[in-house]
Amino acid sequence: MIVLDLGGVLVRSDQVMAAVAERLGVSRPALEEVYYGPPRQAFDLGGSDLAYWTAVGDRLGVTVTPDDAAELTGIDATKWADLPSGSAEFLAALAGRRTAVLSNAPAHLARTVRDAAWSDGFETLVFSAEVGLVKPDPAIYAAADAAYGTTPGECVFFDDRPPNVEAARAHGWTAHVWDGPDAALATLGLRTA
User: Fold this and answer.
1) Is residue 103 a contact partner of residue 133, using CB atoms and an 8 Å limit?
2) Most exposed residue of 32, 56, 89, 178, measured as fewest CB within 10 angstroms of its CB?
3) Domains (ranges, CATH) in the chain?
4) What's the rounded Cα separation, in Å, for the pair 52 and 35?
């Protein structure tokens, strides 16, 4: 089973971060400091959109209303609605192989991916908000194995964050820090680097 993270692997958030920063009236660097800060873990564990965006706003000195939170959630979801062409080509190269997702993602992003046509090729999608666990918690890898119907030795995992890769290895997965689609295909023996 080839298991992929989403953010930083198949999808990027560059344009969305700029749009969210503009909507909040703050600089992108200021937003990036708090976007993945302490409130994010609760959000990735299934916390509410309003609680997350309110906490982000508080840290930025910006008031966030329920309507603002709904709009920000919609903007944020666009980052996973479509794949960049390089990611689509990478997934096409994996056609015919068992593939799955393991991603730290709040509920709205999980819904966006499940609704996107590009996710149809994955056998199983596991999101932190749906299982109540986040990487690198060792329990999420066991939960993923249960969802995939695999044993640890059957999974090859790619993630952009070294702590997540290290935890996957400790669980028994073959795991690699993402270094782009060509490197991943070479690692999988599907293309020479």
Assistant:
1) no
2) 89
3) 2-12+82-187 (3.40.50.1000), 14-79 (1.10.150)
4) 9
Q: How far apart are CA 89 and CA 70, in angstroms?
A: 32
Q: Tally Cβ neighbours within 10 Å of residue 186.
A: 14
| C-alpha–C-alpha distance, residues 189 and 156, integer Å | 12
Q: What is the pLDDT of residues 5-47, one digit of tens each?
A: 999 999 988 879 999 999 999 999 999 999 999 999 999 999 9
Chain centroid to CA 133: how far?
A: 13
CB 88 within 8 A of CB 31: no
Asked if residues 100 and 144 have their Cβ atoms less than 8 Å apart, the reply is: yes
Contacts of 53 (CB under 8 A, 6+ apart): 64, 68, 69, 72, 73
Predicted TM-score (pTM) of the model is 0.94
Sequence-distant (≥ 6) Cβ neighbours of residue 149 within 8 angstroms: none
